[in-house]
Amino acid sequence: MTHHTHHEPQSFWTKYIFSQDHKVIAIQYTITALLVGLFGLVLSWLMRLQLGFPGSFQFLNPGSYYQMLTQHGMIMIVYLLTAILLGGFGNYLIPLMIGARDMAFPFLNMLSYWVYLVSVIVLMAAFFVPGGPTGAGWTLYPPLSALPNAAPGSGWGIKLMLVSLVIFIAAATMGGLNYVTTVLQCRTKGMTLMRMPLSVWGIFIASVMALFAFPALFVGGVMLLFDNLLGTSFFIPAVTLFGQQLPREGGNPLLFQHLFWYFGHPEVYVVILPAMGIASDLISTHARKPIFGYKAMVLAMAAIAFIGFIVWAHHMFVSGMNPYFGFFFAVSTLIIAIPSAVKVYNWLLTLWRGNIRLNVPMLFGIGWISTFIIGGLTGLPLGNVVADVPLHDTYFVVGHFHLVMGVAALMAIFGGIYHWFPKVTGRMLNETLGKLHFWVTFVGAYAIFFPMFLMGILGVPRRYFDFNALQYLPPQTSALNIAITVAALTVGAAQLIFLGNLIWSALWGKRAEANPWGATTLEWQTPTTPPPHGNWGAQTPTVYRWAYDYSVPGAERDFIPQNVPTEPQVLVGAQSTVR
Amino acid sequence: MTVHHSPNGHRDSVTPARVGVWLFLGVATMIFAALVSAYIVRMGSSDWHSLPKPGLLWVNTAILLLSSAALQWATIAERQGAHRSARLGFVAGAVLSALFLLGQLWAWAVLHKLGYFLNTNPSSSFFYLLTAVHGLHLLGGLIVAAWTVRSSERLQLFVTYWHFLTAVWVVLFGLIVLT
């Protein structure tokens, strides 16, 4: 099959709305995810207002606080991070970076976005139904999430939440099947697996994980929905509610925890692996150096993915599990530190004596290394049963997962957006605003989350609406809470600068060259910028080398694109034909 | 189907559709594995009572096995160029599958009559849940097949999916009968 099977869609509707072009779908995913994320950000502001200045805001009460807490967590992890990294970056980068014209199944790809949008609409609808969205915590543990009147939003809210998740899983599965199949089947001539850029590797491995992890949440979610709607007791034990014995017995709440975390822990890597891949490409490109230890980077990601499936119960150390199980899960958890450390050393060694350009993508790349190290290291005490027992459910945990999964992933996402925006829109993002965005976000994130480690060690419990009744807390905790709130509001404001920059630059930004960063990977070698439908014009490129030929001794320029033949006598412009 | 290039030419028999279907089998395996492990865990509670097993389930199982056999016959006929036999096998397989689904609904009715509802006991909850999830996979497969099975490759993939669902049912049925 050749190029002419790809008809350029003509009407506005098929070109921009119901498009099957992976680039349009990527933009749709990204914009939707960023808007949902903005909503999640506002929720975090409201929570911080309560924690910093308890009692000052009448519209905040314990019920609405739990609703915000639940929705903030779910929105950020599932509907922002997962959606933007796989649906946004995955869709845009995979076909372009491997030299394909589109995804393997373009129709399924389009369907994936629209199903995702439906899941977002159902999620948002919960804010407008009687009782509001569920406030059962983002982990949705039963019996709290399964019983009537146990948590806010236990009527409509929890049902919509579960339905939305099930729909999201359908969307993510359609996307995941596409990403994995495309990487396996649609690589252009010469693009062997071990020549793929690490961004593609990260997204590929994360997609495999998502395919095999989401089913557990699907099953748990459907069973919880049955418990909610149809009177079953999969997860509901014998409960006395308001003095009345409920007609349920024997259900197993821990069973839900296992199903949830069998999804929930791999989900962390579904987010982190694409971020690792993107960060690797940012660091290598802007340090003008080949990535250090490419093979080790790929193997480390594969190892993290594999071990990531057998660590889930470290979220359940205090659930009363058999200590031998705890020992097993602690060991497997700590082993993940090894491939993670390999990656950190490789990033640092890539930077070492590189010709570092401190532009905005590189700043975010360095920000990624920093927050990933701090966030990752604070995971070690939590992975140990003995240290986890006192730290469990304190702000130490909040600081840890926000830094490693939230801030670090966002550093890679922001860096990626600044890096690829010129290819997507044909215009550069404003550099000054970008640097402002970086510094406020980077310093501010530490100002928010570093004190939380201290608070956690002091024993400040997470999920609390206020701490008035906790006599053992020193008065300084409330001062710390005020400082954190101020930092959170400031960092939030910086994100508005970023969104403004996106809109302004897309319309009026400086025109970008085809390859403004001097990058080697295929997406920068397209015939036009932004790439047209079908990406490559008449012929798809042929790949002759790996993705990291930066500063090759003796070469004319400090980068050699992947589609430049290795033999010097072959003309640089010679492209292969479509097979 | 869009353009695809396999970097090394000797993998032409592996098409994107084939990879996609096998990946989906992996996803479905995870779904049923999660259900089966939940079943086994929940079984351990003291409130679990064994469910009466309608004899009809044996008949249904036989029908599903026959549908798989008919579809297998269809692919063999298709490979030998006997398109009429292939068509016959495909239609027979589809009809038998529809019969299986009706039989499963009938089994639900039988249990209802015996007083076993969705919320009667975890064993009945799981019975309805497992048969529903499995049945929906079959139904979805039939709908997609009616739409897409236009080539012998697609037929082969559809039959692979069907054998998978038959095998899953044998496992689920074994679990239900033994507990």
Which helices and strands, and how do they pair?
The complex is a heterodimer of chains A (579) and B (179).
Chain A: H1 12-17, H2 22-52, H3 62-98, H4 106-125, H5 156-185, H6 198-229, E1 240-241, E2 244-245, H7 253-286, H8 294-308, H9 323-335, H10 337-351, H11 360-377, H12 379-383, H13 385-391, H14 395-425, H15 431-458, H16 476-508
Antiparallel strand pairs in A: 1-2
Chain B: H1 16-43, H2 56-79, H3 83-113, H4 122-148, H5 152-178
Describe this structure in words.
The complex is a heterodimer of chains A (579) and B (179). Chain A is an all-alpha fold. Chain A has one domain (19-236, 248-525): Cytochrome C Oxidase, Chain A, CATH 1.20.210.10. Chain A is 61% helix and 1% strand. Chain A is built from 16 helices and 2 strands. Chain A has helices at residues 12-17, 22-52, 62-98, 106-125, 156-185, 198-229, 253-286, 294-308, 323-335, 337-351, 360-377, 379-383, 385-391, 395-425, 431-458, 476-508, and strands at residues 240-241, 244-245. In chain A, strands 1-2 form a two-stranded antiparallel ribbon. The model of chain A is unreliable at 1-5 and 569-579 (pLDDT under 50). Chain B has 179 residues and is mostly helical. Chain B has one domain (13-47, 54-178): Four Helix Bundle (Hemerythrin (Met), subunit A) (Up-down Bundle). The N and C termini of chain B lie far apart (46 Å).
Radius of gyration of chain B: 19 Å
Structural class of chain A: mainly alpha
The first-to-last residue Cα distance of chain B is 46 Å
Give start-end ranges of low-pLDDT stretches of chain B: 1-11
Q: State the order of secondary-structure elements of chain B, H for helix, E for strand.
A: HHHHH
CATH class of chain A: Mainly Alpha
- Overall tally of domains of chain B: 1
Question: Helix count of chain A, per DSSP?
Answer: 16
Residue-averaged pLDDT of chain A, rounded? 93
Kindly state the mean pLDDT of chain B as a whole number?
A: 91
Q: Give the low-pLDDT segments of chain A.
A: 1-5, 569-579
The total of beta strands of chain B comes to 0
Helix content of chain B: over 70%
Instruction: Give me the Rg of chain A, rounded.
Output: 24 Å
Largest interface, with counts of residues having CB < 8 Å to the other chain, equals: A-B, 55 and 36 residues
